What we know:
Elements: E1 6-12, H1 16-27, E2 33-39, H2 44-52, E3 56-59, H3 69-75, E4 80-85, E5 99-102, H4 107-118, H5 128-131, H6 135-145, H7 150-157, H8 161-175, H9 180-189, H10 195-198
Parallel strand pairs: 1-2, 1-3, 3-4, 4-5
Helix pairs in contact: 6-8, 6-9, 7-8
Amino acid sequence: MKHKDNVKIVIAESAPILRTGLTGILKRFSRENFSVTEIANGEALPMFLRLHMPHVLIINPMFQPAQNAAALKKEYPDLRVIAYVSSMIDPKALSDYDAMISIHDEPDDINDKLSTLLFEPEADDDTQDTEQLSSREKEIICYVVKGLTNKSIAEALSISIHTVITHRRNIAKKLQIHSSAGLAIYAIANRLVDLKDIKDNIN
């Protein structure tokens, strides 16, 4: 599947605020063409799946326990089933799901999980390295190479220091770059920042 394709997503969750909240996040991903349907009633889900056959089902594991992920994937082999987790749950209970989304996930993390699950890799070109990064990760790179501390980045983006550290760890893993100087070179080469903005911070 390519990014330009229409992706039909169903969110099966009984709590209105969790359904509408996730729907709002998905609609913010301007690069993706997501068509989102919300289902609040477990009895309506099987009929909807038979009639409309979405690409993705995001479902609270407690929404309809009798209709577990393994059974759904057996009946609909092309369906991607994602657990929508709002409380502590035994990891073994999630083993049959294709992915897991937590209510504590950042929007960019949710986008990354969906992209990894659904979309084919981009063709090789000069922007391939930057396309593997989320928009939040690119923001953090810009702040890092401009010399901001983790605490300052967290305050600027209204996120926790732990989240900043996690993003930086993911950036290092994706790019195999482990120094601020290396990130500065990367950021300049990929036009994320101008040289004049970071020349005093390269070390």
